[in-house]
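Write out the 3D structure for:
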Amino acid sequence: MSHATLSLATAHPAPATPAAPAEQRALEERLTLVHAAMTKRLDEAAVAYEVNTAHIPTEPVDLSDIVTVPPPPTLQPPYEPYPTPVAALLQRAHHRLFIGGWCSGALVDQDGARCILGAIRAEAHGDKSLEASAASVLLDAIRRNFGDVDSVPSFNDAYGSAGVPLRMVDQAASLADARGL
């Protein structure tokens, strides 16, 4: 650019349109600008949060583990018993645990609550073969969900509340029914 062109460009600058002060803008225009600015800031904050927490390992929360209050007895629907003996036994054991209480560390505690195996034994009424079959199906159901578990009592005693153990007995009853046991 030559010196003459430069001085001409600086001597006659392009006319600038002055911006209206913020207080003179219409309310809607100001709200639109604020909304756009806040949306941009929130999007940036969401990305920063994702980046800052990406290294934290998380596992999904199963709400059935959190909600542990049983419905009142009048609201509990009567259950249809399974037609197969092992499934029916596991279903009765689940019902006994649900109504009578669950415990860990003992077959039966001082309040009459039972562990999983204690409920199965009580509902088997001395039939050791039926009891063993039910415990076997239950252990299969537990291992499907939790991997290598040593035994039903060790699984039962690993929990401090009844949610997961009761859910596993219910799933085992369904599994036994599907297998025709």
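The longest helix spans residues 27-53.
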